[in-house]
């Protein structure tokens, strides 16, 4: 795996608090926003869930999933597999007080579980900061020449994580 590209993917998403989680349902695909409990440089992520939620059933039927990230200038998708993790110590460690909105009992709620997302592949587009200036220049040059803009691996790349 190309560490530079992997790190660029992490750099694009590391400041996100939420991601869209896409799972497979009986009717097709199902997407919903999820708070990120933890995201590692390897792109492994933990999300908090209720053991009684429909997504737990979906994951048990098909663990393949997609996390998507989007802001005004940064975009990423990461595909992988989800497992359900009831590690109470890890739940305690990752707990954020804002989650009492969904779990009024708090971190001791027996219905809380973690979704462990193990990534396999990712793709990112980064048009923020210097990358944004590079893109504007490339787009203007492409417009004048009648061609498509070219991007470099710091701005857009597919990443094989496994």
Structural descriptors:
alpha+beta; six-stranded antiparallel beta barrel; single chain; 162 residues; Pnp Oxidase, Chain A; 4 helices
Descriptive overview:
There is one protein chain. It is built from 4 helices and 7 strands; from the N terminus they run H-E-E-E-H-E-E-H-E-H-E. The chain has 162 residues and is an alpha+beta fold. It has a single domain (3-126), classed as Pnp Oxidase, Chain A (Roll), CATH 2.30.110.10. It has a 6-stranded antiparallel β-barrel. A hairpin with a 3-residue loop joins strand 4 and strand 5 (74-85). The longest helix has 17 residues, at 129-145.
Q: What is the CATH superfamily label?
A: Electron Transport, Fmn-binding Protein, Chain A
**Level of helix content?**
25-40%
The CATH topology name reads: Pnp Oxidase, Chain A
Domain module count: 1
Give a count of the beta strands, DSSP E runs of length 2 or more.
7
**Spatial order of strands in the largest sheet:** 1-2-3-6-5-4
Task: State the CATH class.
Answer: Mainly Beta
Q: What is the CA–CA distance across the termini?
A: 8 Å
β-strand percent reads 35-45%
- Specify the overall morphology: globular
Order of helices and strands: HEEEHEEHEHE
Radius of gyration: 18 Å
Structure class: alpha+beta
Whole-number mean pLDDT: 85
* Low-confidence parts: 1-6, 132-137
């Amino acid at each position: 795996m190309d560490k530079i590209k992997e790190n660029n993917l992490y750099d694009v998403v590391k400041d996100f608090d939420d991601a869209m989680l896409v799972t497979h349902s009986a009717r097709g695909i199902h997407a919903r926003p999820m708070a990120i409990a933890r995201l590692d440089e390897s792109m492994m992520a933990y999300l908090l869930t209720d053991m009684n939620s429909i997504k737990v059933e979906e994951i048990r039927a098909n663990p393949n999933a997609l996390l998507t990230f989007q802001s005004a200038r940064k975009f990423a998708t990461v595909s992988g597999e989800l497992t359900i993790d009831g590690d109470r110590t890890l739940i305690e460690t990752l707990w954020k007080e804002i989650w009492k909105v969904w779990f009024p009992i708090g971190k001791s709620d027996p219905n809380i579980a973690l979704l462990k997302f193990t990534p396999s592949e990712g793709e990112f587009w980064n048009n923020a900061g210097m990358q944004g200036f590079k893109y504007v220049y490339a787009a203007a040059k492409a417009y004048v020449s009648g061609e498509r803009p070219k991007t470099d691996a710091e701005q857009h790349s597919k990443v094989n994580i496994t």
